C-alpha cells in the first residue's frame, strides 16, 4: 500500500490545508479508508454519531448560506463602481446588461463594514424602510400654533441623540440586516390588489394606516439623512456623488422641508433645521433668485411654518425675504421680472427675452397676500393683486385658456396660440381657485376666470384614448391638438375636486375622477411604476396601448402632482383606491430612486427597471411636497390641515383660509 513520504505529505497539506486526508486522488482515498479501518468499532460509531447532526444542520443551512453568497457577489459587482468620479452614472452602457444596476455607491473606504451591507445595492432590490415596531396613537389636538404631529418623538430619541438627520438609527441597524431588508420589502409590498380600483380593499385594521405613515416618515428620514450628510445648508442634494448643487445658495431643501418635518412630528430634525434658519440663513446676499421659485418654496414655507409653529423667527425671515423680492415688480407694465438680486435690490428678465412666464407671475399671489395680512403692510398684496387684475382684463385668452408668456414691457401676452395646462401655465389655473378660497370666496373675478378656464379645458383640451377611453388633457398649438400631457398636469384632478368641494359644478368632479385614473395609469403602465415627465396618448381604437413615451421624456424628477391629487381625491371621496395608488407610487420610489447612502434621486428612464439611470439630484419638492402629500394621504385624521381651513400653495405649503372680516 502506498504511503506518502513526509515531503509529499507536506506539499499536499500546503495545497489543501483544510483536508484531513491526502489530496492526491486515488492515493488519498486509499489512505483515508485505511485509517478509517484502523479505528475500533466503538470509535467509528462515536464519530458517525457526532457527524450526523452536523450533516443535518449543514443541509438545513445550505440554501440561506448560498443566498448570502449570491448577495455578496452582487455587492462585489456593485463595488466595482465605487471609484467613478462624482456625477458619472455608474450603470449606463454594457454593464447594465450584466445584472442589476446600482442606484448608489457605498461609503468610500477600503473595507466593508457591517453597515455596507445594511441595505441592498441595486434598483431591483427593494430598499423599503423597516415597518414600525408598534402602533402609534393618532393625535387629535392641533391649531395654527399648536399643530404638532408627535408620532416620531420616541423614534428620534432612539436614534442616538444628536444625530437628528441620521435617520437610519441604531434601532434600524439591528432590525434591518442586509437579508432582513429583503424580507421586510416583501412584507411591505403585500398590499391589497387595487388594479381596477373597485374593490376598495379595506385594510384589516387602522394599523395599516399607521404603518404607512411610518413608512413615509422613514422615507423622509432617509432623504434627510442624505441631505444632512452631504448637502447641509445647500440647495439640493446630489445623492450619488454625495455632494450638493446650488441654485440660489439659500438652503432651499432645508427651508422647503420645514413644515413637512413639523407635520410629520420629526421634532429633532425640525429643531436642528430651525437653528440653521436662526443662525445661518441670511437673505442679505448678492445673488440672483427666481421670483416664482423663491416665493413658492422659501417664502411659502416660512409663512406656513410660522402658522404651524407660531414661532416669530419664521415670520421675520418671511418679511425680510418678501421686501427683498419687491424690486421685481418695478417694471413698465407692473408684470414682474423673473429674477431679482436680493442683495442689491435690482431685478431683470432672463438674458434672452423681456418676457416672463405666465404661471410664474400669477402663482405668487397666495404668499404675497398672506404676507400683507400678517404684517399689516399692504404693499405685498397690492403688487400681486395688480398682476391678477391685469391678466384678468387681458385680450388673447382662448375661452379662458392663457398663453404661456407675458411681456414685462407691454404687459401683453406673447407667443400666443399655444395653450397647455402643463409647464409655464399650470399654476395660473390653480391659483385662481385657491386665491378665491383664501379670500373667503369674495373675489368674483377670480371665480369667473377659473370657471371660464375649466370650460375652456373641456372644450379644447380634453380627449379620450382609443384603446381604453382614458381621459386626458392635451395641448393646443395654433389650433392643432397635440395629445401630449406633462406630469405637471396631474395637479388638475386635485384642484377640480377642491372646487367641487367648495360648491362648483359636479362635472368638475366627474372630470377629476377621470383624470385621476389617467394620472394613475401614467405610473401603472410604466415598467418601474413611476410616471414619465411627459406622456403622449394614442387616439385610435386600433392602437395597442393608451400611453407612449418618447425617449426624451422618460425621466422622473420625484414630482408630487399625482400624489397631491390623490390626497385631495381621498379627502373628498374616502375611496381607498386612491390610497392604494399612492402606496404603490411610494413603493416604486423606494425601489427605483432610493440611494443607499441617503437621499433619493431623479431617474432617466421609467421604462427600464434594470437600469433606471440615476440622475444624481434630489429636488427640494420631494421633501416639501411629494412626501408631505403622501403622509397626508395616509393619515386618517381629516382635521390634520383640514381643507376647509387651509389652502396649499403650489409647493404644498399650507396657508390659512382667511377668517371673514368683522361685520
Ligand atoms: C414644484 O416646484 C411646484 O409644484 C410647481 O408648481 C411645479 N413644479 C414643482 C413640482 O413638480
UniProtKB/TrEMBL annotation:
Q: Name one GO molecular function term.
A: calcium ion binding
| Taxonomic classification | Eukaryota, Metazoa, Chordata, Craniata, Vertebrata
Which PANTHER family has this protein been placed in?
ENDOPLASMIC RETICULUM MANNOSYL-OLIGOSACCHARIDE 1,2-ALPHA-MANNOSIDASE, MANNOSYL-OLIGOSACCHARIDE ALPHA-1,2-MANNOSIDASE-RELATED
Q: Coiled coil where?
A: none
Q: Which residues cross the membrane?
A: 45-65
Top-level taxonomic group: Eukaryota
Q: List the disulfide bonds.
A: 490-519
Which keywords fit this entry according to its UniProt record?
A: Calcium, Disulfide bond, Endoplasmic reticulum, Glycosidase, Hydrolase, Membrane, Metal-binding, Signal-anchor, Transmembrane, Transmembrane helix
Q: In which residue ranges is the amino acid composition biased (Low complexity)? A: 90-111
Compositional bias, Gly residues, is annotated for 158-168
Q: Which cofactor does it need?
A: Ca(2+)
Enzyme active site: 293, 426, 533, 561
* UniProt subcellular location: Endoplasmic reticulum membrane
Which residues does the record give as Ca(2+) binding sites? 650
Which pathway is this protein assigned to?
Answer: Protein modification; protein glycosylation
Which Gene3D superfamilies does UniProt cross-reference here? 1.50.10.10
- Designated name of the protein: alpha-1,2-Mannosidase
Q: Which GO terms describe its cellular component?
A: endoplasmic reticulum membrane
Instruction: Say where the protein is mainly found.
Output: endoplasmic reticulum
Q: Where is the signal peptide?
A: none
Role of this protein: Involved in glycoprotein quality control targeting of misfolded glycoproteins for degradation. It primarily trims a single alpha-1,2-linked mannose residue from Man(9)GlcNAc(2) to produce Man(8)GlcNAc(2), but at high enzyme concentrations, as found in the ER quality control compartment (ERQC), it further trims the carbohydrates to Man(5-6)GlcNAc(2).
EC number of this enzyme: 3.2.1.-
**Per UniProt, what is the membrane topology?**
Single-pass type II membrane protein
* Ranges where the record places region Disordered: 89-175
**Catalysed reactions, as listed in the record:** N(4)-(alpha-D-Man-(1->2)-alpha-D-Man-(1->2)-alpha-D-Man-(1->3)-[alpha-D-Man-(1->2)-alpha-D-Man-(1->3)-[alpha-D-Man-(1->2)-alpha-D-Man-(1->6)]-alpha-D-Man-(1->6)]-beta-D-Man-(1->4)-beta-D-GlcNAc-(1->4)-beta-D-GlcNAc)-L-asparaginyl-[protein] (N-glucan mannose isomer 9A1,2,3B1,2,3) + 4 H2O = N(4)-(alpha-D-Man-(1->3)-[alpha-D-Man-(1->3)-[alpha-D-Man-(1->6)]-alpha-D-Man-(1->6)]-beta-D-Man-(1->4)-beta-D-GlcNAc-(1->4)-beta-D-GlcNAc)-L-asparaginyl-[protein] (N-glucan mannose isomer 5A1,2) + 4 beta-D-mannose; N(4)-(alpha-D-Man-(1->2)-alpha-D-Man-(1->2)-alpha-D-Man-(1->3)-[alpha-D-Man-(1->3)-[alpha-D-Man-(1->2)-alpha-D-Man-(1->6)]-alpha-D-Man-(1->6)]-beta-D-Man-(1->4)-beta-D-GlcNAc-(1->4)-beta-D-GlcNAc)-L-asparaginyl-[protein] (N-glucan mannose isomer 8A1,2,3B1,3) + 3 H2O = N(4)-(alpha-D-Man-(1->3)-[alpha-D-Man-(1->3)-[alpha-D-Man-(1->6)]-alpha-D-Man-(1->6)]-beta-D-Man-(1->4)-beta-D-GlcNAc-(1->4)-beta-D-GlcNAc)-L-asparaginyl-[protein] (N-glucan mannose isomer 5A1,2) + 3 beta-D-mannose
The UniProt similarity line reads: Belongs to the glycosyl hydrolase 47 family.
UniProt-listed GO biological process terms: carbohydrate metabolic process; ERAD pathway
Amino acid at each position: 500500500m502506498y504511503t506518502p513520504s513526509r515531503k509529499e505529505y507536506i506539499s499536499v497539506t500546503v495545497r489543501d490545508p483544510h483536508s484531513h486526508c491526502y489530496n492526491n486522488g486515488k492515493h488519498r482515498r486509499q489512505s483515508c479508508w485505511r485509517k478509517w479501518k484502523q479505528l475500533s468499532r466503538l470509535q467509528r460509531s462515536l464519530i458517525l454519531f457526532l457527524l450526523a447532526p452536523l450533516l443535518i444542520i449543514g443541509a438545513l443551512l445550505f440554501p440561506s448560506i448560498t443566498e448570502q453568497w449570491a448577495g455578496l457577489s452582487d455587492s462585489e459587482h456593485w463595488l466595482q463602481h465605487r471609484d467613478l468620479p462624482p456625477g458619472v452614472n455608474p450603470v449606463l452602457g454594457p454593464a447594465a446588461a450584466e445584472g442589476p444596476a446600482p442606484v448608489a455607491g457605498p461609503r468610500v473606504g477600503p473595507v466593508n463594514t457591517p453597515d455596507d451591507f445594511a441595505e441592498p445595492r441595486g434598483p431591483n432590490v427593494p430598499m423599503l424602510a423597516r415597518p414600525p415596531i408598534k402602533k402609534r396613537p393618532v393625535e387629535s389636538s392641533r391649531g395654527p400654533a399648536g399643530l404638532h404631529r408627535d408620532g416620531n418623538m420616541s423614534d428620534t430619541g432612539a436614534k442616538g441623540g444628536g444625530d437628528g438627520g441620521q435617520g437610519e438609527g441604531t434601532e434600524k441597524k439591528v432590525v434591518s440586516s442586509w437579508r432582513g431588508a429583503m424580507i421586510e420589502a416583501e412584507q411591505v409590498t403585500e398590499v391589497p390588489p387595487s388594479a381596477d380600483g373597485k374593490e376598495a380593499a379595506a385594510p384589516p385594521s387602522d394599523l395599516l394606516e399607521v404603518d404607512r405613515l411610518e413608512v413615509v416618515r422613514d422615507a423622509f428620514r432617509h432623504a434627510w439623512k442624505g441631505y444632512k450628510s452631504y448637502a447641509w445648508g445647500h440647495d439640493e442634494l446630489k445623492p450619488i456623488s454625495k455632494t450638493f448643487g446650488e441654485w440660489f445658495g439659500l438652503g432651499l431643501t432645508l427651508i422647503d422641508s420645514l413644515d413637512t418635518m413639523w407635520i410629520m412630528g420629526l421634532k429633532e430634525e425640525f429643531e436642528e433645521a430651525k437653528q440653521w434658519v436662526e443662525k445661518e440663513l441670511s437673505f442679505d446676499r448678492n445673488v440672483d433668485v427666481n421670483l416664482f421659485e423663491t416665493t413658492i418654496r422659501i417664502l411659502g414655507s416660512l409663512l406656513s411654518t410660522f402658522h404651524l409653529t407660531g414661532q416669530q423667527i419664521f415670520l421675520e425671515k418671511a418679511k425680510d425675504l418678501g421686501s427683498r423680492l419687491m424690486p421685481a415688480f418695478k417694471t413698465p407694465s407692473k408684470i414682474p421680472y423673473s429674477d431679482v438680486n436680493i442683495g442689491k435690490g435690482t431685478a431683470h428678465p432672463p438674458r434672452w427675452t423681456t418676457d416672463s412666464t405666465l404661471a410664474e407671475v400669477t402663482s405668487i399671489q397666495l404668499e404675497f397676500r398672506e404676507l400683507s395680512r400678517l404684517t399689516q403692510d399692504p404693499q405685498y398684496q397690492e403688487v400681486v393683486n395688480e398682476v391678477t387684475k391685469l391678466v384678468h382684463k387681458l385680450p388673447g385668452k382662448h375661452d379662458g385658456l392663457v398663453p404661456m408668456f407675458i411681456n414685462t414691457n407691454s404687459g401683453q401676452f406673447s407667443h400666443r396660440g399655444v395653450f397647455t395646462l402643463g409647464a409655464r401655465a399650470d399654476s395660473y389655473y390653480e391659483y385662481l381657485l385657491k386665491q378665491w378660497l383664501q379670500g373667503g370666496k369674495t373675489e368674483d373675478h377670480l371665480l369667473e376666470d377659473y370657471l371660464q378656464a375649466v370650460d375652456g379645458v373641456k372644450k379644447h383640451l380634453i380627449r379620450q384614448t382609443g384603446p381604453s377611453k382614458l381621459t386626458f388633457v392635451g395641448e393646443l398649438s395654433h389650433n392643432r391638438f397635440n395629445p401630449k400631457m406633462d406630469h405637471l398636469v396631474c395637479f388638475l384632478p386635485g384642484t377640480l375636486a377642491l372646487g367641487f368641494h367648495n360648491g362648483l359644478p359636479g362635472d368638475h368632479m366627474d372630470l377629476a375622477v377621470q383624470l385621476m385614473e389617467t394620472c394613475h395609469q401614467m405610473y401603472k403602465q410604466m415598467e418601474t411604476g413611476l410616471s414619465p415627465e411627459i406622456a403622449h396618448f394614442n387616439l385610435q381604437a386600433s392602437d395597442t396601448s393608451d400611453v407612449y413615451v418618447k425617449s426624451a421624456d422618460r425621466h422622473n424628477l420625484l414630482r408630487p402632482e399625482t400624489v397631491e391629487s390623490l390626497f385631495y381625491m381621498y379627502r373628498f371621496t374616502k375611496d381607498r383606491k386612491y390610497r392604494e395608488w399612492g402606496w404603490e407610487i411610494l413603493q416604486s420610489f423606494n425601489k427605483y430612486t432610493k440611494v443607499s447612502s441617503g437621499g433619493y434621486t431623479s431617474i432617466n428612464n421609467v421604462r427600464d427597471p434594470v437600469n433606471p439611470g440615476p440622475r444624481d439630484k434630489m429636488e427640494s419638492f420631494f421633501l416639501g411636497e411629494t412626501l408631505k402629500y403622501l403622509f397626508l394621504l395616509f393619515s386618517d385624521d381629516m382635521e390634520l390641515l383640514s381643507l376647509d381651513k387651509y389652502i396649499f400653495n403650489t409647493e404644498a405649503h399650507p396657508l390659512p383660509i382667511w377668517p371673514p372680516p368683522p361685520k
